[in-house]
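*Target chain*
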Amino acid sequence: MIRIIHIPALIAIVSCAVQSKPEGGPKDELPPKIIAQQPSPGALNYGNGLAWITFDEYIKGNSVKGNITSSPPLDNLEFEIRGKKLILNWNPEQLLEETTYRISLGNQIGDLNENNRVQNLEFIWSTGSSIDSMQINGHINKIGGGSFEDLSIWLLPKRSDSINIPLFSTSPSKDGYFSLKYLPVDTFDLLVFEDLNFDKIWNDELENFGFLKEVSSQVDSQLIEVNFFVEKFVMPELDSLAIDSVHLFLDSADDNKLGFVSYILPPSTSNVKIFAVNGNIELIDLSINATSDTTYSGYQKCLPGTYEIFGFIDNNNNGKWDGPSWELNFQGEQLISGQTFEIRANWELDQPIDYYNSSKDEE
């Protein structure tokens, strides 16, 4: 007997059998949540060769194989993703007694649809009856733009000549805060850098960085601040013809068409290279030598407009900006930026300068 199925009914049957992403509603921006895991964080006396995590939604791996790290190293560490579950396997015979182990997957696990990443995913356990319990908590003082979440944080052996493989690593939150837990009692060098080519190697010539040396782990770590430079000091390119025209105008224009500004510069134990710039047509050099007194420039003629202050504290008084140096353990000379002010025609303005008003990216 021939069975006849109407087309609308057939479409309904097929539609019910196919799973698809729901339409409408707000976009999912939350990473998968951990429902259960083995071993649990900080587990003791764990000597198995298996670890797993079950999430509340389907997951996928993003280059997981090349981004799994373990400390101490575990040979032939394998992973598998089954729907909502991440599974890791290794040979348990290689585990050392009374040792804290850490397997880090970074930010490589995300949900299946939107790829919202789980931040700093780790397994941490001990094969003995105690576990390393020290920590380091901190905040990145980022000078310039960009996202905190693009940065890598490494803990390295103190005074290490090799900066290829970290002992411990993490990534900061979107607000620049970070926490490294389950650490041994020790002192480390801390490196922050932007891994531009995603090769898990720091290139000090191409990649921006900041650091702090001889950082000690503690039971209840106080917040440390780590400077990270995105900006570099660069003199702006100015229009020479426009500058000549400005000088002629300043010499010949009526005073009621100009502004008059007196700059107030605070004391400094080092020379200060500092400038005020109006677009690309006017540059005013306000640089001063080290002094214990406040400096008043006296009133100067200038064009009406918006001016920006920029420069640096010349700590070694060599007349040029020196950036951070890992080898010299030098944090880099402080940049001055982020301060603007308005000058109007026929105005007198007493303008204080703030050396510490550096521009910081606000998320």
